[in-house]
Amino acid sequence: xNINLHHTELSRANGPGLRLVVWVQGCELNCKGCFxxxxxxxxxxxxxPVSALAEQINALxxxxxxxxxGGEPLDQALAIEALINAVHREKNWVLYTGYAPKEIxxxxxxxxxxxxxxxxxxxxxxxxxxxxxxxxxxxKTSDRVDIDFFRTKRTVEFVVSSLSMTKTGLPxxxxxxxxxxxxxx
Length: 185
Prior knowledge:
Largest sheet: 8 strands, mixed
Radius of gyration: 15 Å
Number of helices: 4
Shape: globular
CATH superfamily: Aldolase class I
Strand content: 25-35%
CATH class: Alpha Beta
């Protein structure tokens, strides 16, 4: 099984601790004003075996976890599920998705993915929001990810390579405890 990948990079701005961020390629939601348009076209990107990506992640002993973003990860739910199952369990998982919880829990594969990760930030992107994740709902399935990370100020990262520069990171999100949902069992 393959996964359609936009790119990966190490980050401290896309979840707590040092993480590998996996940006998938392809998004059927195409939210108006999305800041990550280059990840939407499913015809571009790099199709790689899930097992090869899992090997790369497993070789990174120094990372605390993996963040999956995109594009839309749940548009490739079977591949994401296979990736999670192939990675050593000591790593924690954060998933960003544009799908709302009611959409996720109507689909068996999407539900399994959300139950397999530690924290999901779910809901459509709103370009008129104060910040991009203002309307996200947190779905917490374990205590392995400190959700306070998502409530505090973080820095924005700039990743520079010989080919490009990427700006990444999340704005401040003031999340009330009532906005955190437990995954249904």
